[in-house]
Write a structure and sequence with these properties.
With 163 residues, the chain is of the alpha/beta class. It has 3 helices and 8 strands. A hairpin with a 3-residue loop joins strand 2 and strand 3. It starts with 14 loop residues before the first strand and ends with a helix.
């Protein structure tokens, strides 16, 4: 088989999640995280986005209305990663979630990015993160990216809001 590389301009267009309660999911994604509601299909599905795109996240109850939370052990989506444009935006969401006492499952500095981890109300993993500028990414001696997982300086992150 001939070698193929997907084009560099390729992006993940959207994620579509099965949820048990559409209203509760919208409260989380729109009310807490700040996505905007673009459209709904009755009371069974909704499409939400950042900045008016047709949708970044689809939510539906077609096969999951009233279902229990997602299993932690087993196959499926590990998390949806939501890339924020700046460290200050990550700090803003960290502060907003803290003020609502929303539980985090983790926080990490990955060298190339800084990330906050939490679960949505249905147990779907969420990563909120920002990328450091590419020229700041740590590199190994061979030039490859040196990603790691270290403790995220949460106090330093919050200082972004005072700048």
């Amino acid at each position: 088989m001939e070698e193929y590389r997907i084009p560099a301009q390729t992006r993940i267009g959207h994620v579509h999640l099965k949820v048990s309660d559409l209203g509760r999911a919208l409260d989380f994604y729109c009310g807490l995280l700040g996505f905007e509601l673009i459209t709904t299909y009755g009371d069974q599905a909704a499409f939400i986005s950042a900045g008016g795109y047709h949708h970044h996240i689809g939510l539906n109850t077609w096969q999951s209305k009233g279902a229990p939370k997602a299993e932690k052990k087993g196959v499926g989506l590990f998390h949806t990663a939501i890339l924020l444009p700046t460290r200050k935006e990550l700090a803003f969401l960290f502060n907003r979630l803290n003020q609502q006492s929303y539980p985090f499952t983790g926080a990490a500095d990955h060298g190339v990015s800084e990330a906050l981890y939490l679960d949505d109300p249905d147990g779907n993993g969420i990563e909120l993160y920002w990328d450091r500028p590419k020229e700041e990414w740590p590199r190994k001696e061979d030039g490859s990216i040196d990603m790691y997982t270290r403790r995220l300086d949460l106090e330093g992150l919050l200082r972004e809001l005072r700048i």
